[in-house]
Amino acid sequence: MLMYPKNRHKEYVADVKKWLIFVAVFSILSLVLSNNALAYSIETKSIASSHMDKSFPATIVLPSAYNNPAQRFPVLYLLHGHGGDHTDWLNKTVVATLADHYSMIVVMPNGDKNKWYMDSPINSNYRYRSYIAQDVVQYVDQHYRTITTPAGRALAGLSMGGYGALHIALQHPDIFGAMASTSGGVDPRPFVGSFDLDSVLGDANTLSENWHNAAIISQIARLKMQSQALYIDCGDNDFFIDANRQLHQALRAKEIPHHYAEWPGEHNWDFWQRSIHHQMIFFSQFFKVESQ
User: What DSSP string runs through 237-268?
Assistant: First the structure.
């Protein structure tokens, strides 16, 4: 620790005050500069559900190019995982910076913590597929300058949200032209009794058809006709890896075009932080091709 001579106490105090003032001014200036450098903007909106008589928050990233009032933008809808919420992607990845770099709007809705983005066959109060596909998309198109065709909309998510993205997009090709799943729980059947799936799909023994129909692998036939762009990735040490491999093989057997990636990784944010970079490139290329 620096020791200041006693006979220079007043000068020392004066120097400290000057230093503190300098630090304060520097901190404020740094904050102002950093905010100015933050080219994108972030908004939080409350979006009502016409099916469930309640509202949910959504985080929305607008790229810096949105300042051009003559331009319309593609939208990536990005879903959170089980137990998460609309802030996860923003707080734990660089998705906002990527949205700015690729000049797309990113909408991160809240799909509740454990409802799997389904319209539940056993509980009419759970209408989360309809909420995302209809209410959220309609709100965004009404309040922002978006490209209002499937060519300008993509849907993606992680884990529960990865399942939700494929599940919703497959049933709404008139809304979403592209979809992606990272570490997705794409087949609920091996996870009876886990992740609150029973509360959405019912008893697996007496209502086995619900579980069968919910599996993405049971829905892929429609991809042949719908021609949506599809991206899937998963870590090789993820507990969902077997279901993702099986889905990939089923897609190959049906000669359905898709992008599949498998890397070293687990079911965590380290993997999802890497994955979102690849997804954004995939979607950017999709939007670019579709706009030509």
Answer: T-TTHHHHHHHHHHHHHTT---EEEEES--SS
CA 215 to chain centre: 20
pLDDT tens digit sequence for 179-198:
999 999 999 999 999 999 99
Cα-based distances in Å from 279 to 80, 155, 182: 15, 11, 9
> Coil, strand, or helix at residue 272?
helix
What pLDDT digit, counting tens, does each position of 226-243 carry?
889 999 999 999 999 999
Confidence (pTM): 0.86
End-to-end CA distance of the chain: 65
Radius of gyration of the chain (CA): 23
Is the separation of the CB atoms in 140 and 106 below 8 Å? no
Q: How confident is the model at residue 222 (pLDDT cuts 50, 70, 90)?
A: confident
What's the per-residue H, E or C state across 116-181?
A: CCCECCCCCCCEHHHHHHHHHHHHHHHHCCECCCHHHEEEEEECHHHHHHHHHHHHCCCCCCEEEE
What percentage of the chain's residues is helix, strand, coil (to nearest 5)?
A: 50, 20, 35
The conformational region for residue 185 under phi > 0 = left, psi -120 to 50 = alpha, else beta, is beta
Beta bridge partners of 47: 56
Amino acid symbol at 279: Q
The answer to whether domain 42-291 has CATH 3.40.50.1220 is no
Question: Residue 106's closest CA among 63, 157, 143, 139?
Answer: 63
